Amino acid sequence: MTWTAQHTQLTTATADGVWRRWITPEFWGPDDPDTAWATFDAPAAPGVRGRVKALGSPVQRFTFTSVEPGHGMNFVISLPLAKLSFPHSMRETPAGLEVTHGVRLDGPLAGLYAIIIGRSLARGLPEVVRLVTAAAL
Description:
The structure is a single chain. The chain has three helices and eight strands, in the order E-H-H-E-E-E-E-E-E-E-H. It is of the alpha+beta class. It has a domain at 24-88. Strands 1, 2, 3, 4, 5, 6, 7 and 8 form an eight-stranded antiparallel beta sheet that branches. The radius of gyration is 14 Å and the shape is globular. The protein starts with a strand and ends with a helix. The relative contact order is 0.27. The model has no long low-confidence stretch (mean pLDDT 98).
């Protein structure tokens, strides 16, 4: 089973500015009100591992699965019988930069995790995209 949600916003921020927010762990907390902190010891690249602490939750380990500078990235947290992914993408349009953040759950328990954590994560996406793009101006 797969469950997904995403939010897209048009901005005048630059792709370089948004990209810096995404690949700098010190920005993850200020850009996401539900994140206390994040860390990864190597520059963001496929296979690089890190840790993230959401408010009210234990520390989770994640792995970058894709990193395309200036275009997008994704990282995955393994859960029992599911994978929690956070796809990020951006693209230039005639009206400005389109920035998208998403959340995706895959696996046999994806439906259950969607109820437990997915809906809450989805509700937070508009604020996260707003904060990232505002900080990237």
